[in-house]
Task: structure prediction
Amino acid sequence: MSMHAPRTRHTLAIATVTLVAALVLAVLAAGQLHLLDRLYEGLFGPPDLGEIAFETITRRAAGNDALACPPATCGSARVDVVPSNYAAAAGELRRRVRRYFATQGGVLVGSDETRLHDRFVVRTRFLRFPDTVDVEIVPVDADHATLAVYSRSQLGNFDLGTNLRRVRALLDALGPGVASAARDVWRA
Result:
């Protein structure tokens, strides 16, 4: 073994760490410049996965989605979280949901005024993976409403819990419910 071998390994380690750091910074900068958005769209198509109907929703087998739904609203689909009723008229709850997604960088890409249904494209923070989120407001009475939320990833087969965290964060941001707290449903 030569005397220069430890020095060469040390230099190689420093070069590797520098290269990895440069790649991480390039990916972060690309995300900030929305270059990743264009790359993903070029490779995988438009980020908007299209509108769904909550009454007939079919969950993905891949596990890269999450569903919050009031009882008897989402057919036989497996529900992750049962949302509360909120002390807000349907129109006000819808405005609160829209404001929430606007603050999260979400883009409203579809809206149905009759069904009080909105669709957003929301991107993950660093790698800007696109997810489609459908939200439908369900009036309970003149002063109360609840909602159904379905968040799903465009890319990959596993989302590391991102969609479920997004659904829970939205429900938390809407404030405490009336008469019953939102509850998670245990996944079998």
